[in-house]
Write a structure and sequence with these properties.
heterodimer; A: mainly beta; six-stranded mixed sheet; 12 strands; B: mainly beta; four-stranded antiparallel sheet
Chain lengths: 113, 114
Amino acid sequence: AQSVTQLDSQVPVFEEAPVELRCNYSSSVSVYLFWYVQYPNQGLQLLLKYLSGSTLVKGINGFEAEFNKSQTSFHLRKPSVHISDTAEYFCAVSDQGSYIPTFGRGTSLIVHP
Amino acid sequence: DAGVIQSPRHEVTEMGQEVTLRCKPISGHNSLFWYRQTMMRGLELLIYFNNNVPIDDSGMPEDRFSAKMPNASFSTLKIQPSEPRDSAVYFCASSLTGRGNTIYFGEGSWLTVV
């Protein structure tokens, strides 16, 4: 069975500072990894995903994530955040035998001016 | 292109009443998901349909909840009778069936049971 742990429930940061949102997963087989973002009062939308190939994945809005198989991690980073990045961020994992991803509890990114 | 469409966006109902949430998936998508989001439990998968057939309903809380997908372009989630603890945001989502495919979410139905 697969599981996802998002280590921080809330991450406050000042505008233009760098940020890292942490995600660790557990699975006995190869996985696909996702980051979704949920802006206030909206549904989730895909930021980026790792399927195979390069372990550094670039997504929308300047975000990127790195797949680290040995550490079973898929941390999300942005070098300089904006107020508009304030949102809930969800990490998700799907093992290669499943159509259904498992979502983490989410990390609330709060960007202060 | 139209995304996943959910209705109603907001519903306030009294305990004991029947609630029906509706969803129109993206045209051509053959996988459909119903999720529930609360502060306490986060995002929970309630049920997964593939080609209109329920494949995994292990997340449906109890017999008060039921979901149907009569055709490829429509699904309902029904709660009867509703209870205050059912208050949550209910999301419908769809995708093309396939491992690693992106799931597209609707904007959610905000349910309050008083």
